[in-house]
Amino acid sequence: MFEAILLTVITASTPLVLAALGELVTERSGVLNLGVEGMMIMGAACAFVAAQLTGSPYIGILAGILGGGIFSLLFGFLTLTLVANQVATGLALTILGLGLSGQIGEAFVGQPGIKLQPIVFPFLSDIPFFGRILFRQDLIFYVSIALVVGINWFLFRSRTGLKLRAIGDSHASAHALGINVIRTRYLAVMFGGACAGLAGAQLSLVYTPQWVENMSAGRGWIALALVVFASWRPWRILAGGYLFGAVGIGQLHAQIVAQNLGIVIPSQFLSALPYAATIVVLIIISHNRRTTLINTPASLGKPFVPDR
Amino acid sequence: MRIELQKRARVSTLFSVLSPLLALALTLLFGAIMFWLLGKNPVSALYSFFIEPLLEVWSLHELAIKAAPLILIAVGLSVCYRSNNWNIGAEGQFTIGAITGSILPVLYPTWHSPLILPLMLILGMIGGALYAGIPALLKTRFNTNEILTSLMLVYIAQLYLDWLVRGPWRDPQGYNFPQTKGFQIEAVLPEILSSGRAHWAFIFAIAAAVALWFMMRFMLKGFEVSVLGQSERAGRFAGFSARRMVWFSMLLSGALAGLAGISEVSGSIGHVQPVISPGYGFTAIIVAFLGRLNPLGIIASGLVLALTYLGGEAAQLSIGISDKVSRVFQGLLLFFVLSCDTLIHYRVRLIFAGTKTAEVKG
Hints:
The complex is a heterodimer. Chain A is an all-alpha fold. Chain A is built from 14 helices and two strands. A two-stranded antiparallel ribbon of chain A has the order 1-2. By secondary structure, chain B is mostly helical. Chain B is 68% helix and 5% strand.
């Protein structure tokens, strides 16, 4: 029982972790992309359609990544090249993504999807309990864990990561040092888009292998909250992502448990829990103004026009 | 080829007027391409999308019905955005306003009095304002990001409404449909003209837009909004309080969204049901930007966006295009508005390889 619950928590948490990791890199470069929800749903639609057309979920994954990444370029062009307002452009990305994905997926509504099969590690997967939980997962799960480690190394141990953080903290100084602010930010935005797209692919290929309109159901927004919660650190994204995933799955089980005990809790109240939990977490994390100020990339959301 | 921006010495008045129109033209162009890709005749598709709904009296009434909530919400949001408070949860405030406003007709269906309608509208505004007060409180007290909290509250409000109409508020004689009893006649927002369905919400919308235009243009409060939005520091020197502005803008926009909610339920639907809005609260964000955050501009842009809803329905019937096309149109429109706004503050130059420099847009 516990094992089964843990497995569903992992499946529910992976998209949150992935999307939040991508947004973390984007925000570390000083760009606030509120379009995660839109990029995620585009990734989900592209992945599902590609997998249906080719019969291969791996091509689906690729399509999800490309879909999210290319879609994020729109945001990049507007905010980086045309210096449009980042908050408004992010919202535009979400609105357009929800519409466009509905259009893309329309012909595929109700079709049974292709589920991405787990990759079983020989021997390791035979370890009692841990083996089944850690070594019998699908590719996207392994990628999400690798990304946590990789991004942590990249941001805090590599030269390029240092430059990226420098841009996020002061784009003017970074520019003066000869770092190409705009190019780096474009790459960071695209990375964020690709991660959100992969998260979407996980939704439509693993979590619920089918296409349902608006199937991201606010997960992109929760991922945004997760970045704040994690104070822009990859490891905390992993912890926070699993916490949020557990709340989401926990409410489903609470409904069953309550039903068995004869307690009537309206299902809507329990469904609202993940959203309410997000608000509570944001309050706890943000109430200390000083630590928030220290952790937030100083140039976050500020437009940059290079002077020549 | 690359694009280079050059800050204008002063804001271009020409492009302030031209940019929304340019954005509209670009959206239509892209829309035509999209229809062509879908294998439809672009001209006739655009015609049935954007012209046909304007040709008949009944559909003009529908236009007013759809434009009313958009304008009401968007003028409130424009004050928020001008003061740098990012309330994106208008959809939730709309929902809660609809709920609190409906308390009277749902709980007292036999109360027949001319008082009921004004009370409903007031309760709707209070409900919306209180709901917007949550992110305001969290922002001022706990420094919490209002974008995320106001959005999370949308989901919570929708689930709450869903529970209400499936649970305690469900009409026992309603054959198990998840909806309340129809409102008594005194609780229904009356129509403006006898020629069609358009009701008083449209009048409220125009009144709110004009009132807020007056405030922004001629009153100290309007000046306070712009100053605090452009520079909180400068506002502090003038003795304005950013904290109070959070409350003012959020409560105002929440109240207007709540008014839109109760007007929609009372005027257009006549009862409460699980889904009461085709995303008005989010589309209003586009309306606010297309109207360049100017209340009078918002009247025009509200009508344009209402047309995309109507056109979507019409095109679905006449040429068999999915109504999701209207969502795509709305998203595209916001993109083009935001990119065209760049022209107001910057000269855009295209620089080709080599030394040749071409100036495109002056």
